[in-house]
Write the structure tokens for this entry.
Amino acid sequence: MKEIIKVSCGQFFPKFGDTAGNLEQVYRMSEEAQSDLIVFPELASSGYDFHDHEEAQSLALDLVDGPEVYKLAEAAKNTGTHIVLGLPERSLDKVYNSTVLIEPGGQVTIYRKLHLFDKEKDIFDPGNAQLSVVETEIGRIGLMLCFDWIFPEVTRMLALLGAQIICHPANLVLDYCQRAMFARAVENGVFILTCNRIGAEARTGRELSFTGCSQILSNRGGLLAKADSDSEENISAEITPVAADDKMITETNHLINDRRTEFYGGLVK
Ligand code: ACM
């Protein structure tokens, strides 16, 4: 296992409805980055502003044996990159706002967004599986999606499950998530890659402007790389995932073991 790895965010403007073109962009940016891990935005294959559930279903991908997954697995293998991207996922009559991790060895892990944002509640089915962390050859990776950020329980759960790197594909319209993620990195001692999209969509009677500014944070909240608000670009950093196993923030304070859980019971009521 490599001690130091290169990680990237591929910030771009997914064009609504152009699955093939958007995935081409994913392959191209993965090749350009030459990274061990690259994260792309939420709903990167489809765009964001669906009219309804049926429209989302028509652009949703089958992650069990759809052709796109095989192509993504090929791209991960050819580039030696762990690829994470958001997409609408079809499963029987359900459509989830999902993110998928595809490893160079072909393993596929799916996370279905637990906390749907605003009108997403009319479009998608809510995630129905436990949060999980994947043991990969570059470290332990946790998956979350966009608005999950406002629930600190999500990053905390991923940290408790052992995540060293949290991948956070996003389609952010509020401009304060990026700042809040510093706290998520510091309070959990984990690396966080927030990959946001850029551009705007106005398909359903309102304009949504996405805020870009993708960022890579260290396990102590350091800003390792940052994109601007409207460029298509890869940003990259070198990180040491195992550093996230050190939860001591002073000689006597441990981020996890010092919790006084007997006083937090109300949190899960
Ligand atoms: C969001 O969850 N797309 C803000």
The chain has six helices and 14 strands. Residues 146 and 196 are 8 Å apart (CA to CA). The chain has a mean pLDDT of 97. The first helix runs from residue 19 to 33.
